[in-house]
Amino acid sequence: MNQPYPALAVGQQGPVAYLSGFGNGFETEALPGALPIGRNSPQKCAYGLYAEQLSGSPFTAPRASNERSWLYRIRPTLQHWGTFQKMDAGLWLTAPAPMVDLPIGPMRWDPIPIPDAPLSLLEGVRTMTTAGDASSQAGMGAHVYFVTRSMVDEYFYDADGELLFVPQQGALRLWTEFGIIDIAPGEMAVIPRGVKLRVELVDGPARGYLCENYGGAFTLPERGPIGANCLANSRDFLTPVAAYEDRDASSRMFVKWAGALWTTALDHSPLDVVAWHGNYAPYKYDLRRFSPVGPILFDHADPSIFTVLTSPSETRGTANVDFVIFPERWAVAENTFRPPWYHMNVMSEFMGLIYGRYEAKPQGFVPGGCSLHNTMLPHGPDVDAFEAASNAELQPHKLEATLAFMFETRFMQRVSAWAAGAEQFQRGYGAYGTQLKKHFDPARP
Ligand SMILES: O=C(O)Cc1cc(O)ccc1O
Ligand SMILES: [Fe+2]
C-alpha cells in the first residue's frame, strides 16, 4: 500500500468517517470553527481560509435538483490554475467519439486482465462505449479501469461528467476534496463533476467499471406506489467528513475537459478543504444494502425495479442514464418464465458482472466481463437459460452470491476501437440467439 502522506492533522477525523443520507445539506469541519456560522462568505474566514462555491446545477435550478457546496480551503482553485498543457487522453474517449464500424447485434467481452504495467487511474481508464455528447451534457461513457499504482502528488478532476465507480476487483481509497472514501467490490461511489481527487490502491491491483455521466446528476429514483421504503434507502448513502492535506510538494494537476486531459504543475496539494457545507458532495453506497422489490406471485417485472440511481433527462421518465443492479434475491413467481424475457429496447444496455452468475447468461458472461445490447437490438436468455427455465420446477429459489449491473441510457452506444479490437471481444456472441430451438407444434396447445 502506497501511503507516503503524513498522518491526518489534529482535529481531523479518521479516513473512514462518513455522514449518512442522500443529498442532505451536510456540514463538516476538520478544524473546530472552520465553518462560518449563519453565512457563507464572511469578510475573513477562520484560519485564513478562502471560501469557494462549487455549483453542480445552475444557480436557478428548482430546489429539488439544486446542488452546490461551500468549500473553506487553504487556497482557492483559481490559485491552482497555472498554465495547462493539453495531453492525449489515450484510451479514455469522450462522446461524440469516433465510431468503429459496428456489427448490428449484441456484443460481449471476457474480462480483460489487469495489465502488469504501472497504471494510475488516469492511465488505466479504457473506454468501452460512449453515448450522446459530453459538451451538450447528455449521455455517458462506459469504461473499465485498471489501477496498478496509486496516484502520488497527482490530482485530477473531471469537468465532462460525474464519475460512478463500480469496483470489481481490489479496493480503492478515493482522497477527495470533501474527505476520504474507501470502496471495495460490492460497493459504488460517485464523484460529482468538478470534485478533485486522487486514487490510491489499498490491497493490490484493482479493476472495475466506471460510468462517466455527462448529464443530470445521479439521484434516487421515485418510488411511486412502493412508498417510503425499500430499493436504495437514503440513510445508506455515505458522504465523507472533511479531511484536508496541508502539503507543499511538487505535484501535478490533471483536468479532463472537453474530452482532452489538461495538466499543470502545482507546488501543493489541492485537497486542502478544511471544512465544507452543502448538498453537492461525493458519496458511496454498499449495493448489498439495496432492498429489492419484485413480483411475488407471477411474471417478471421490468428491470427498472432495480434502479439504484437515475440521471434524469429533460424528458420525464426517459433517463439519461439509469444505474441498475441485479442483486441477490428470491425468485418465487408461479407459472412464470422467471429469467429476463426476450425483448428489444429503445434504451441501450451496457452490463457488467461484479461477482457470481447472471441468470439470463449462465455461461460466457463472467465477472469482470461486459456486454452491450444496443438500441432496438433483440436479446434475452441464451439457449441453456431458456431450456432450463422453461422446464424448472418452480420452487422458491434464491439467486445467491450474484451481483450484476447495467448502465442503461436513452442514447445509442458507440463502441471504441479498443473494445472492438480487444482479444477478449467475443466475436461469435452476436449469433447466440440462432441456437434457440423451434418448439412450435400446432397439435400441442
Ligand atoms: O437484458 C438484460 O439482461 C437486462 C434486463 C434484465 C431484466 O430482468 C429485464 C430486462 C432487461 O433488459
Ligand atoms: Fe435487456
TrEMBL record:
<dbReference type="InterPro" id="IPR022950">
    <property type="entry name" value="Homogentis_dOase_bac"/>
</dbReference>
<dbReference type="GO" id="GO:0005737">
    <property type="term" value="C:cytoplasm"/>
</dbReference>
<feature type="binding site">
    <location>
        <position position="343"/>
    </location>
    <ligand>
        <name>Fe cation</name>
    </ligand>
</feature>
<keyword id="KW-0585">Phenylalanine catabolism</keyword>
<dbReference type="InterPro" id="IPR011051">
    <property type="entry name" value="RmlC_Cupin_sf"/>
</dbReference>
<feature type="binding site">
    <location>
        <position position="358"/>
    </location>
    <ligand>
        <name>homogentisate</name>
    </ligand>
</feature>
<feature type="binding site">
    <location>
        <position position="349"/>
    </location>
    <ligand>
        <name>Fe cation</name>
    </ligand>
</feature>
<keyword id="KW-0560">Oxidoreductase</keyword>
<comment type="pathway">
    <text>Amino-acid degradation; L-phenylalanine degradation; acetoacetate and fumarate from L-phenylalanine: step 4/6.</text>
</comment>
<dbReference type="GO" id="GO:0006559">
    <property type="term" value="P:L-phenylalanine catabolic process"/>
</dbReference>
<feature type="domain" description="Homogentisate 1,2-dioxygenase N-terminal">
    <location>
        <begin position="17"/>
        <end position="287"/>
    </location>
</feature>
<feature type="binding site">
    <location>
        <position position="397"/>
    </location>
    <ligand>
        <name>Fe cation</name>
    </ligand>
</feature>
<dbReference type="InterPro" id="IPR014710">
    <property type="entry name" value="RmlC-like_jellyroll"/>
</dbReference>
<keyword id="KW-0408">Iron</keyword>
<feature type="active site" description="Proton acceptor">
    <location>
        <position position="300"/>
    </location>
</feature>
<feature type="binding site">
    <location>
        <position position="379"/>
    </location>
    <ligand>
        <name>Fe cation</name>
    </ligand>
</feature>
<dbReference type="GO" id="GO:0005506">
    <property type="term" value="F:iron ion binding"/>
</dbReference>
<feature type="binding site">
    <location>
        <position position="379"/>
    </location>
    <ligand>
        <name>homogentisate</name>
    </ligand>
</feature>
<dbReference type="InterPro" id="IPR046452">
    <property type="entry name" value="HgmA_N"/>
</dbReference>
<dbReference type="GO" id="GO:0006572">
    <property type="term" value="P:L-tyrosine catabolic process"/>
</dbReference>
<keyword id="KW-0223">Dioxygenase</keyword>
<comment type="function">
    <text>Involved in the catabolism of homogentisate (2,5-dihydroxyphenylacetate or 2,5-OH-PhAc), a central intermediate in the degradation of phenylalanine and tyrosine. Catalyzes the oxidative ring cleavage of the aromatic ring of homogentisate to yield maleylacetoacetate.</text>
</comment>
<keyword id="KW-0479">Metal-binding</keyword>
<protein>
    <recommendedName>
        <fullName>Homogentisate 1,2-dioxygenase</fullName>
        <ecNumber>1.13.11.5</ecNumber>
    </recommendedName>
</protein>
<keyword id="KW-0828">Tyrosine catabolism</keyword>
<dbReference type="Pfam" id="PF04209">
    <property type="entry name" value="HgmA_C"/>
</dbReference>
<comment type="subunit">
    <text>Hexamer; dimer of trimers.</text>
</comment>
<comment type="similarity">
    <text>Belongs to the homogentisate dioxygenase family.</text>
</comment>
<dbReference type="GO" id="GO:0004411">
    <property type="term" value="F:homogentisate 1,2-dioxygenase activity"/>
</dbReference>
<feature type="domain" description="Homogentisate 1,2-dioxygenase C-terminal">
    <location>
        <begin position="288"/>
        <end position="440"/>
    </location>
</feature>
<dbReference type="Pfam" id="PF20510">
    <property type="entry name" value="HgmA_N"/>
</dbReference>
<dbReference type="InterPro" id="IPR005708">
    <property type="entry name" value="Homogentis_dOase"/>
</dbReference>
<dbReference type="InterPro" id="IPR046451">
    <property type="entry name" value="HgmA_C"/>
</dbReference>
